[in-house]
Amino acid sequence: MPATTDARGILSEENTSKREEIIEMLKRAYWMEIETVMSYISNSVNPDGVRAQEIKESLEEDIQEELGHAQRFAERIKELYGVVPGSLEFDAEQTYLQPPEHQTDVVHVIRGVIEAEAGAIDFYNRIIEATDDVDPVTNDMTIEILHDEEGHRRLFEGFLREYEAEGLA
Ligand SMILES: [Fe+2]
Ligand SMILES: [Fe+2]
Questions:
Q1: Strand (E) positions, 76-143?
Q2: Are 143 and 97 in contact (CB under 8 A)?
Q3: How many CB atoms lie within 10 A of CB 18?
Q4: Closest C-alpha among 122, 156, 146 to residue 40
Q5: Residue 124, C-beta contacts closer than 8 angstroms, at least 6 positions apart
Q6: Neighbours of ion ligand 1 (CB under 5 A)
Q7: Residue 8: which pLDDT band, with cuts at 50, 70 and 90?
């Protein structure tokens, strides 16, 4: 850690361990976003059928947003004197967003997206709690990203409702 003369704030000497804890959380958030980008690319291409179009287009838009989130988490890791991890440290977790057996199974994709967004919402709320009072910049940034994820989940919950209403989910 660089020498710092800051008397207060997350970059101050006395907050070193807190800062390291936040960096670890940001790395996890970064990986979650990267994996979401991978999953959304595949699921914006694979699905077949008339019904799949809306879902594919929506995921296509989200890819850019999730990529932007990954970049913001990465920048913040560096600002806190951390190092953005290399690809060899990546561990995949999104079992629920693997390609379904049949590529017309749009409900599988919708449920997978809802699960991914719910996981992000849960974890980002934890970051917000952990940074409250001690790191207002990470706190603010994560609140903004959380807002996006809540919007994503709500959109896909709406898609699921439609399928449920028609007895297809
Ligand atoms: Fe995201
Ligand atoms: Fe999202």
A1: none
A2: no
A3: 16
A4: 156
A5: 29, 142, 145, 146, 149
A6: 33, 66, 69
A7: confident
Ligand lying nearest the CA atom of residue 40: 2
pLDDT band at 5 (very low <50, low <70, confident <90, very high): confident
Ligand nearest to the CA of 149: 2
CA distances from 86 to 27, 34, 83, 124, 148 (A): 11, 12, 9, 22, 26
Pair of tokens at residue 26: 């940001």
Instruction: Report residue 69 as tokens.
Output: 């989130």
Structure tokens at 92: 């995949």
Residue 154 in 3-state DSSP? helix
Q: pLDDT, tens digit, for every residue of 110-159?
A: 999 999 999 999 999 999 999 999 999 999 999 999 999 999 999 999 99
Q: Is residue 43 within 8 Å of residue 59, measured between CB atoms?
A: yes
